[in-house]
Write a structure and sequence with these properties.
Layout lengths: L1 H14 L10 E3 L5 H6 L10 E3 L5 E4 L2 E4 L7 H5 L3 H9 L3 H20 L3 H19 L3
Antiparallel strand pairs: 1-2, 3-4
Helix pairs in contact: 1-5, 4-6, 5-6
């Protein structure tokens, strides 16, 4: 059981698509979380009930991303579970397969940012749309 929890945490921290602005533009905060969010230097919006994405607590590293406030992250962050995470929790299997899905989505975004080839863009959008729904939508 502990290995499964460790793997799920590693998957979450290695992905970061829910933190880097890819999936969401903001994260809702409960009123009692405002002080903690400000203490952790999260960019609280003027309206005071959310902070903006990409999250300022997200940092890159060679093997993915890391949340600097993971242990203290807001409830909305804790509650979000993507389909890829849920699938790994239910089915198990090699973590590397799930990490490959994250890497593929990042590669597709790079294609969209860099290519001028309409056919390549169309194919990337089609695959990205499918993968976002299959793997990264709310479970």
């Amino acid at each position: 059981m502990r290995d499964e929890i460790d793997e799920l945490g590693a998957l979450c921290r290695s992905c970061g698509l829910c933190c880097d602005g890819t999936l969401f533009g903001g994260v809702t905060l409960d009123p009692e979380e405002l002080d903690g969010a400000r203490k952790n230097r999260l960019p609280v919006l003027r309206r005071g009930n959310a902070f903006a994405q990409p999250c300022s607590a997200l940092a890159g590293r060679d093997d993915g991303t890391v949340c600097a406030v993971y242990a203290e992250r807001p409830r909305s962050c804790r509650r979000f579970v993507c389909r890829l995470h849920e699938r790994h929790r239910r089915e198990g299997g090699p973590l590397e397969v799930r990490l490959d899905a994250v890497r593929r989505v990042r590669a597709l975004f790079r294609v969209l940012e860099t290519t001028t080839d309409d056919e390549a863009r169309h194919a990337a959008v089609a695959e990205l749309t499918r993968r976002m729904e299959d793997d990264f939508a709310r479970a």
